[in-house]
TrEMBL record:
This is Uncharacterized protein. It comes from the Eukaryota.
Amino acid sequence: MTTKMVGRAQGFYALASLEEVGLLMAMNFAFIEGKYNGSSITIMGRNTVFSKVREMPVIGGSGLFRFARGYVQARTHKFDVKTGDATVEYNVYVLHY
């Protein structure tokens, strides 16, 4: 909470599973500072939110991340059942030109 903000996560999710809590995620990591200002990384994939680690593909990007490919690993650190608020760590592994 005390580090400088370098970007924002923007996107949406929809329920996409009958058997478990599985979401279809579409998300951009939009950078607003430094070398990557104005660039973004786009992910889209299945997120089974109660799994310890979830993996989703990087499907592209913009700016310095044009033609980006890779994957994201998501880990939930905190989840408040009453409010639905969650703290999720995203580690992004990306190749780009």
